[in-house]
Amino acid sequence: MGVPLRRRSGRSVYRESAPVAKVAGVVESAWTGWVGRSRPLRVFPDGCADLVWDGRGLAVVTTVRGVLRHELPSAEWTVGLRLRCGAGGAVLGLPMTDLAAEATPLRDLWAGRARRAESKLAECVTPAAARSVLEELVAERLQDVELDGLSIAAARALRSPGARTDRVAAELGVSERGLRRHLWHEVGVGPKELQRVLRFHRFLNRVEDVARDRSSLAGVAADVGYADQSHLGRECRRLSGASPGALVRSWTGRNVPD
């Protein structure tokens, strides 16, 4: 579940923080969103899965295969833990290919453990307290699972714009087929598709630079690993359903040519 294009928009605010040490190996960040009002949210793919408490239920949200329209409730705040790319299958206990690109109730996966966590979360009056419950939930889960360190390392290596899947596999001591098998289980896509998602996520992290005239779409396209601006446009439409210029316009509110 990716971060918003703008971390502050109207009454909505999104903030990240570092997770506690005992879950840092599998949790990339903890986050809090002050929603403001009920509304649909575009969630762009980033290769990660998030555990999300929205005041009504605890769910896992995954979007690696494309943009997701997620309905935000009118709760005062929501909290979540973003699992590291490559850790989802082990932590959740099933191949990530088995999860649809949507919010799946965690009770469908963890049964009584998830229901007990929901009861505790319902009693939390602050985001900090809710984050602690989620971190304890993941820490408890880690006592029962064996992590796939290879997939986490592979996802980290594939973030590099110049990464080649054959070299990443060789460096990790597996065949390309073995690398593909690990990533299908832990992320939900193979290495080539994951590279496309991670490259698109690098572009999303640079949308503000274009919006503030610190760079151009062509410049950002080259920086993050696209062949040219047209390549960026095709991939952006494929993974988000919108053009690069449209995403910049959604950030800034002014016209930006594609």
Automatic annotation (TrEMBL):
Keyword Cytoplasm: no
Domain HTH araC/xylS-type: 148-250
Pfam families in the cross-refs: DUF6597, HTH_18
PROSITE patterns given in the database record: HTH_ARAC_FAMILY_2 (PS01124)
An MF annotation (GO) of this entry: DNA-binding transcription factor activity
UniProt cross-references to InterPro entries, sorted A to Z: AraC_XylS_family_regulators, DUF6597, HTH_AraC
Keyword annotations: DNA-binding, Transcription, Transcription regulation
Record Gene3D superfamilies: Homeodomain-like
Superkingdom of this protein's organism: Bacteria
Name the record gives this protein: AraC family transcriptional regulator
Annotated organism of origin: Amycolatopsis alba DSM 44262
